[in-house]
Structure formats: C-alpha cells, structure tokens
Amino acid sequence: MTARRAQERRVSQPHFSQPLRQIALMVIVLVLVAAGGWFAYGRILPIFAANPWLNGLILGVFVTGVLACFWQVAQLIHSVSWIERFAERRRNATAKGVSAIGADQDSAPRLLAPLAALLGVRGPIGGVISTGSARSILESVATRIDEARDITRYLANLLIFLGLLGTFYGLATTVPAVVNTIRALAPQEGQTAVEVFDKLMQGLEAQLGGMAVAFSSSLLGLAGSLVVGLLELFATHGQNRFYRELEEWLSGFTRLGIAGDDGERLDQASIVGFLDQIASQMSDLQSFYAERDEIREQEAIEADERVLLMARNVERLGQFMLDDSEANVGRMGEMAQSMSRLAAGQDKLVRATETRPDHMIEIGRALSRLAETQDRLARVAATPPGSDEARMHLRSIDEAMARLVEETATARQASNNELRREIVELTEALRALGRS
Length: 436
Hints:
Layout: H1 2-12, H2 20-39, H3 41-49, H4 52-96, H5 113-119, E1 129-130, H6 131-184, H7 193-251, E2 254-255, H8 268-355, H9 360-382, H10 388-435
Parallel strand pairs: 1-2
Organism: Paracoccus jeotgali
Coiled coil: 397-436
Keywords: Coiled coil, Membrane, Transmembrane, Transmembrane helix
C-alpha cells in the first residue's frame, strides 16, 4: 500500500523537459546555412539580382518562417517552466487542502490556458480529475500546438509557391522572347548579316534572362522551404515530447468515474476498467490491513519480551537481597564468636590479675580498651546490616582486637620474664643461705 502511494506521488510529480536539444539543432542548422551562403556569396548574388523584388519577397518569407519556428520553441520553454511551477503549487495545495489557484501571481501561457482554467480553481477535492476533463485538456493543448504548426507549414508552403511563381513568371517572359527572336530572324531589305546576328543575340539574352528569373526564384524558394521545414521538424519533436509528458502527468491523477461524461453511457471496456480499478483498490486495502496486523503482532511480541526481562530482573534482585541477608547472618555469627572469645579473654585477664597484681595498670588499660570494643560491637549490632557505618565499625573493631591481642601477648611475656627473674633471684638467695 505504501509503495503504491509512493508510486502515485512520483507519477503526479511533473517530469517535463526543456527543448534544449532542439534549440541546439536549430542553431546548428542556421549556422550551416549562414556558412554556406557566405562561401557561395559570389554565385548567389547574380542569381538574386535576376529578380530582386520576387527574390527579396522569398527571403523575407524565409526569415519570417525561421522566426516562427524559434517563437514556437520559446513558447514551449515558457509553457514547461509554468507547468512545473503550477504542478508544484497544486501538489502543495492538495496536500494542505486549500485551493491551488495562483493566476494572479503567474499568468498561464496561451498553450496551457485551458489547463489552468480547469485545475486552478479546484479545491481540496481536486486531487483527481475525470477522464473527460483530461481528454478535454489534452485536446485543447493539441489544438493550440497544431495552430502554431499551421503557421510554419503555411510559410514553408508559401516559399515553395513563391519559387513556382518565379518559375512560371520566368517562363512567361521567356516564351514571348523566343517568339520575338524567331520573328527577328526574318530577312528584310537592306539588312546585313551583322544586324541579323545582333537581333539574335538580343533575343537570346531576353530568353536567358527569363530563364534566370525562373530558376533563381525556384532555387531560393525550395532552399528556404527546406530549411524552414527542417526547423519545424525539430520544433515539432519538442512539442510532441511536451505533449507526451503532459499526458503522463495528467494520467497520474485521472480516475475513471462510474457514469459517463455529458450523459454518455459507459461501454463494456470502461466498465471492465472500472471494476479492475476497484479490485486493485480492494487488494491494496487488504494488503494495508495485513501489514497493520503484522506490525501490531510484532509490537505485542516485543512487549512480552520486555515483561519477561523485567520479571527476570526482579528475580535477580530478590536473589541478591537473599544472598546479602545470608551474608549478614554469617557476619553476625562471626561477631558472636568474637564476643565469646573476648569474654574468655576477660576471664583469663581476671585470673592473671589475681595472680600478678604488679601488672594491674596494664591490665586495666587492656580492660578499658576491651570495654570500648564491646561498646563498638553493641553499636554495630544496632546498625542495619550491610551499611557503610557497620563496615567501618567492624574494621575499627578488628584493628582494636588486633592491638588488644598484641598488648595481651606483650603483657603476658613481660609477666613471664618478671616471674623467671624473681625465681632466679629466689634460687640464688636460697643457695646463699645454704652456703652460709
């Protein structure tokens, strides 16, 4: 459906070509004719001087025919430029739903006046036209093109006629000269041979002058008709191409109606074409709905995939929270074991204090640190598991316990050393008493 609409939009867009190639060919022909006349000037001038009035008229008609051919091409250029602008305005107006009239800004050329009158006043429903309207536009354009062609055709035929007119005029002057020459050859009294020969020469000169008029006019007329016909051929090629492009553009938004135009009855071919068009539109409509259902099904599949992905993420989040709680329970068990070990260490320190009262100060310091550690453990137990504050307290507790173990070991080593020293002194004192 989308591809068909895009194709219809491309067909409705103007694709008109300027007659640049035809203009180039016409200019080349004129350049070749001018070059040939320049090189043959010495021979053409006597031919032209044989009858300057008639040959001058032929030359004037030739120039008029050349200008008429170029005028047709110039009119075609103006028509192509105008219809491109008109088609652009009409397409924009149809898309926006407003009128496409714009004759006050850009007047239509004479060749496309019916098209502007018919399509320029159509409102938002002017997106399509009937076959009768399209046929009327094409017939009107073809009529105006034929009118322009008739001018150049008439001028080309006029050149041939003037050439034939000069030919018959020259023959009309030649025949009486022949009669007069024959009469002049009759012998008279007292006439010498030289006089007779002079009359013969005068008669032949008159005959040859008439033949020169005949052949010069015919030559110029036929040559001019040939050149004008060639220029008309190139101009006709450009007009035919413009007509074909206009027909293709109009066919892009021409639709067959259910009733004939001007009360005419539809024939069987028109009905078949209309039914084919209806079937094509129904097929396009089915394709459109199938494409829409496919798009909706694809969107539903994508939505299900997103819901499944969300459920997986929620499951992962729950598993992560469960693992985190199990890890917190493990850390709480480790903290309980640490507190049990600290309690056992307190008992040992109490016993050591009772055994060695000399180290009461150091033991008191250790007990104060142990009390601080217990306070920290209590705060950690009150802190929610997994928080940054709990981690910091655990780290400080680990450091305090490490220092406490180190100081306890140092105090125990010092106590043992002091006990050994006292035992050694006691032994020496006993030995001294034994010797005395």
